[in-house]
Amino acid sequence: MPEKKKVGLGFGWSDEEKNKLKELYASAPRADILKALSGRSWDGIRRVAVNMGLSRLQKEKEKNAYEILVSDPAKLENFFVYMGGGKTLRDLQAKFDVKEEEVKKILESPPKGKKIARDLGSTPGLARFYCVPDLKQYSPKNRIWSYKLAENDKPAVAILFPDDLSWRRMRIVPLADFWFGHKLFDRSSMEEKIGWILSSPHVFCCFNGDGIYPRRIRKENEEDQGEWDRLDEEFTRLLAPIAHKMLWAQAGCFEDVMVERYYDSMKNFCEKFDIPYFRTPLSAEIHWAGNIFSFHCVHGKSASVEKGAKINAALKSSLKEDFHNYFVMSHIRDSITKKTIRRVEDIFDFDLKEREQHVLITPSCINYDESREAKRGQLIASRGQSNADLQRDGGYFTGMGSTKELEPFITKGGGQ
């Protein structure tokens, strides 16, 4: 019968490991010893050290993982960097070998200029925490465009860009259906879009409804109102970095619900950053480089499942309106574009001309798992982005795909 392997006596340890143990065990900090002998537990190291006749000269209390973490600025910075796209308390416990109460203590003191945000729609116990810029210390950037509203409060706006911009193209990204605060909200998807818009000088956006998922606010209930106020603050903080790039916004179903229950957070956001806001479908014009590009935006409503039915619902709605270069519709939670041909009357030449109209259905920021589509066994909706692609020479197209796929956009000798 083979001899049973003895445990804790150094069997299985290499000579190199034993030499490191002899060199460090007497006086080196526990953290240094564990680092030098990666893969070995502290209990195992102690048993081998005793068997080798080694002892600790350092009599003072050993620092635990929490004390080591909070006493080292570099390690503490790494803690908040690791939070990245959001981490649960369990993620942070496992990564840094600290207790839940100790994680909470660290989160109470974020770095200067930062604030800890919690994804309020998450399941209790699985909530994700984010280290985000503190909005109170955020200074909005100056925008390069101006706007003019239609007379008599009509739902129309003209966006005016300087003609001397040296861009060959400009992209307009319709954003909608965030479902912020709901358990299905996909924060990483939204942050990717925001990061792309913020980092690309030629990319701008508009909001097409359904920002914060509505909550039931009991009349004069401070707890309900406080929860909504926190959601409103986090939502504003998330969108604030691209406020100077949001050309216009309109209310969706969620905003219509909350304006009756408490207040409309998107309206407050637009008033704070002077963004044209409308409660109804709107028409917009972008004036740039001697061109006028027209948009008609509706929040929309459809129970269609198949992509063909979805685009047909948008096409049917577009035919009820006058011609625009782009017809934008949301609420369908997919990413689809379609080019159509419309006959347009030329009142100057007394002629009918054929013009291209692009119909865009905007994607959502909703996770597929646990969604209604998943429960019904429906296909996963496209999660890319539908963009209006405006050309300096007057051309206009649509673009789809990942926000990571960028093409050159500045002409020779250009700038921002």
Describe the structure.
The chain is of the alpha/beta class. The chain folds into three domains: 1-62, no CATH class; 65-136, Arc Repressor Mutant, subunit A; 139-401, Purple Acid Phosphatase, chain A, domain 2 (4-Layer Sandwich), CATH 3.60.21. 30% of the residues lie in helices and 22% in strands. The protein has helices spanning 15-24, 30-36, 42-51, 65-71, 73-82, 89-96, 100-107, 187-199, 222-239, 253-261, 265-273, 307-318, 372-375, and strands spanning 114-118, 129-133, 146-149, 156-160, 169-175, 203-207, 246-250, 277-278, 282-288, 291-298, 326-329, 336-346, 351-361, 385-391, 396-401. Strands 3-4-9-10-11-13-12 form a seven-stranded mixed sheet, covered by helices on one side. α4 crosses α5 (73-82). It is elongated. Residues 1-9 and 401-416 have low confidence and may be disordered.
In terms of DSSP E residues, the strand content is 15-25%
Strand order of the largest sheet: 3-4-9-10-11-13-12
Q: Could you describe the largest sheet, including whether it forms a barrel? A: 7 strands, mixed
Task: Please identify the top-level CATH class of the largest domain.
Answer: Alpha Beta
Number of strands: 15
Please specify the SSE layout and strand pairing.
Blueprint: H1 15-24, H2 30-36, H3 42-51, H4 65-71, H5 73-82, H6 89-96, H7 100-107, E1 114-118, E2 129-133, E3 146-149, E4 156-160, E5 169-175, H8 187-199, E6 203-207, H9 222-239, E7 246-250, H10 253-261, H11 265-273, E8 277-278, E9 282-288, E10 291-298, H12 307-318, E11 326-329, E12 336-346, E13 351-361, H13 372-375, E14 385-391, E15 396-401
Parallel strand pairs: 4-9, 5-6, 6-7, 7-8, 10-11, 11-13
Antiparallel strand pairs: 1-2, 3-4, 5-14, 9-10, 12-13, 14-15
